[in-house]
Amino acid sequence: MVELRQRLQQKLLQKLSPQQIQTIKLLELPTLLLEQRIKKELEENPILEEGHDDDYQDDGEEELTEDSVDKNDDEFTLEDYLNDEDAPSYKLVANNYSKDDKHDDIPFSGGVSFHEYLETQLGLRNLNERQQLLGRYLIGSIDDDGYIRRKLSAVADDIAFALNVETTDDELEEMLYVIHDFDPIGVGARDLQECLLLQIESKDLNHPEIGLARKILKYHFDEFTKKHYEKIQTRLSISEEQLKEALDEILRLNPKPGSAFGDQNSAGAQHITPDFMLEVKEGELSLSLNSRNLPDLKLSREYSQMLESIAHKKGDLTKNEKETFTFVKQKLDSAKWFIEALRQRQNTLLLTINAILDFQREYFMEGDETFLRPMILKDIAKRTGLDISTISRVVNSKYIQTHFGILSLKYFFSEGLQTDSGEEASSREIKSILSTCIEAEDKKRPLTDEALMDILQEKGYQIARRTVSKYREQLDIPVARLRKEL
């Protein structure tokens, strides 16, 4: 029989305060999301208001506690909540912008979506009610690229479950043939080969190059994707010039027909808002936070005075007054925490970005990628005295506007490689050289990873072939065989 015992045990635990949690969450937000977060806090907390807090004067009250609400003969105070020193004012708006400037977003019409456009074409066809139902469900299964990537049997099961309609793969395939005739051509394809075939077959096949392109896509698609052009030439008994003309026709096709319908308004509305603004003035770097659309925050005087009136009231407090006191005090604490978290966010951002600027000063002055020094999160953590996880949160989804473009903060972090002279070279510099070499290569005989390794080693970079392959993949550059052109 197991004996039960009770015992005392002490443990040392690390717990984050509400303010620390608030600061961590705000630290990760880029400027655009921070603006939305501040608006949300303003809506939820009546204590917070937009404006400056410079006109508020502390009355020098004594300390106010929740316990004192239940003790009528004790003095109430608001010192910890209304003191300017405890909730310091700070600027969220850049000084070089006027308060009269308006930054309203221009509204735009959303237009018709891709799936609505397909459903409109479905409604123009002479179809019965059942066919219209199946057609709409198939259109709903088409992704943004224009493909149906699920098996028709799985779609049939979903229709039976969701709509209580029994159907077969053959019936769905007949409806899919109807959708294949919709604009843009190639929509509703189940794979890339079918998508390209639908597009090439919509052209005049009497033209030799188009007819040849169809043969390549239908019977030699695997060789085409692997760029085994010699095999295609041999099997079709064609010249290199004929193959080139056919490939040119194929390359004019759209592998993602859904993207051709892209909403121009929505695409134009998506943009990057830089979190930092960097300029070079008289040979020196000038940095500022991009806080143009962020409001100043202050504590509401109306609610502060309400709390004061309850605190200074003599005699017993009613139940409603106690509830009011508790509510206002809770919101006041939350408002102060939020303001302090924003202040800490601002300080942490400036501390981190200044350390990055100091580390990469030569690069920021010249804008030349070859001046980019190897830098990892640990390097900035040492310079700032902050934790590596804090630096990671700061650089995540943050951008800086420089005189040579808007760049992600992650762009400046890279690994280092040793050169023959013993100096450290940034992996960013190696990638730049790789891109240059590949752009200048003979496309009929592309450079292999081993050849690229030899070129880099001749330039003094100690690099292995597997490292060349890794950097090439990071640059989204295919292997030599797939870069081959006629």
TrEMBL record:
Gene3D superfamilies in the cross-refs: Homeodomain-like, RNA polymerase sigma-54 factor, core-binding domain
Location of the RNA polymerase sigma factor 54 core-binding domain: 112-303
Domain of life: Bacteria
GO biological process: DNA-templated transcription initiation
Annotated Pfam families: Sigma54_AID, Sigma54_CBD, Sigma54_DBD
Residues covered by the RNA polymerase sigma factor 54 DNA-binding domain: 327-484
Keyword tags: DNA-binding, DNA-directed RNA polymerase, Nucleotidyltransferase, Sigma factor, Transcription, Transcription regulation, Transferase
Region described as Disordered: 44-73
PROSITE patterns: SIGMA54_3 (PS50044)
Gene Ontology terms for molecular function: DNA binding; DNA-binding transcription activator activity; nucleotidyltransferase activity; sigma factor activity
GO cellular component labels: DNA-directed RNA polymerase complex
Family recorded in the similarity comment: Belongs to the sigma-54 factor family.
Record's protein name: RNA polymerase, sigma 54 subunit, RpoN/SigL
Lineage per the UniProt record: Bacteria, Pseudomonadati, Bacteroidota, Bacteroidia, Bacteroidales
